[in-house]
Amino acid sequence: MDRDGLAVVPEATAGPAGPAGSEGSAGTGAAGSAASGARRRGAFRALRSTPFRWYFAGQIASASGTFVQQTAVAWLVLQLTGSAASLGLVLAVGGIPSLLLGPFGGGLADRFDLRRLLIVTQATYGLLAAALWLLAANGAAGVPVVIGITVAGALVGVVDSPARQAFVSALVPPDDLASAVSLNGVVMNSARVVGPALAGVLIAAIGTTPCFAVNAVSYLAVLVALVFVRPLSAGVVRSGGGGLRDALRYARGREQLWVPLTMMAIVGLLAFNFGVVLPVLAKETFDGSGGTYGAMSTVLSVGSVLGSLGVGLIRHPRRPYLVGAALAFGLALAATAAAPTPAVAYVTLFLTGAAGFTFVTLASTTLQLHSSPAYRGRIMALWVFVYLGTTPIGSAVTGWVLDLGGPRAGLLVGAVACVVAAGLASRVRTPAHPDALLTDLPAR
């Protein structure tokens, strides 16, 4: 699996005539406020929204299928070539579209209806998975075919990723956005554990080809969900025009936007390179096996699930939360770098996953809360770029650091990046909590 002249405006949900995000309209009384507060508490409160429940259920199936296929593709390439370099080439090529085109994908998301756009992108993903399944079943899935389908999927992702990010905010009331974003993160991080595990069982029992079929079928779930989903909208907003440059100007004038983006660019470039660091840490530092690496990846993923889920308890992310999460992430990375044994590293990696994905979820929620619907697709495209599009550069830099100083040095560089990002954010003066949903939405 893993925005636009027409953008969905989130429904004002606080009261019959109250603004979005308020606790209630004037005159509702203490009982109404208490009832509203009760409705809005809890990490799972976004599931009270029927549109989000449909979408959430579809994402569970689709995300798991995605990681089943990714695992099977890696195994297939190794079977065909016996070369880790060939596998690295496939992974690197798959990241090029996001690196080159990622910031531009939000322009389409800001010009078309998000639900219809996602139906197209998700159906295309399903067709690509089905094509790989049929080719593999006929013995025609060589490395060039795998690279071609990987690149095609990455091109679709340039549009799909920011569209999915922006679509979430149209499915829940503003007060529940943090819960929705955190649950989305839980789905993805859980799929990182469930998908490879299921793929391992299928590969051992019947080979890689059925894994591609599983992924193709999984897209039916999200397509059914999108057909039935009706966003909480009071209408649509026509974009004022402009593309990426206009979005950059918009973000540059709002600290609530450029600060999280800058923090994520620094942290994402140097701290989120676990795919490069963990195998070397397991093998060279702790003289471990593939099982050691698998255990490290698992505890990191479990921590990330809990970190994402914890953000759902927050109604409105504040700057101090973001700074604190970045600092906690840096401390956890430093603790992992200093871990004397694998057992200690498992504990520190759990904390690393929790702190790191708390930071990611807080930053994503902040961007969605503070961006106008007319710009949200392009803002989230910038977010996807600084989070995922910089992976090829970050992986190369981290690999160079590992060659010079080993995995502990790589982890410490990531820790320093987190501290630098937190220091930058703490020095920027911003109003306490201006609500973009109140200031940017046109009069209803």
Helix content: over 70%
- Using the coordinates above, name the CATH class: Mainly Alpha
- Could you name the ranges where pLDDT drops below 50 across 5 or more consecutive residues? 1-39, 234-240, 432-444
Q: How many DSSP-defined strands? A: 2
CATH superfamily: MFS general substrate transporter like domains
Note the main attributes of this structure.
single chain; Growth Hormone, Chain: A; 2 strands; 2% strand
Structural summary, described in words:
There is one protein chain. With 444 residues, this protein is mainly alpha-helical. It has one domain (45-439): Growth Hormone, Chain: A (Up-down Bundle), CATH 1.20.1250.20. It contains 18 helices and 2 strands. The chain has a two-stranded antiparallel sheet. Helix 2 packs across helix 3 (84-101), helix 5 (114-137) runs antiparallel to helix 6 (143-168) and helix 12 (290-311) packs parallel to helix 14 (342-370). The longest helix has 32 residues, at 50-81. The chain starts with 6 loop residues before the first strand and ends in a 5-residue tail after the last helix. Residues 1-39, 234-240 and 432-444 have low confidence and may be disordered.
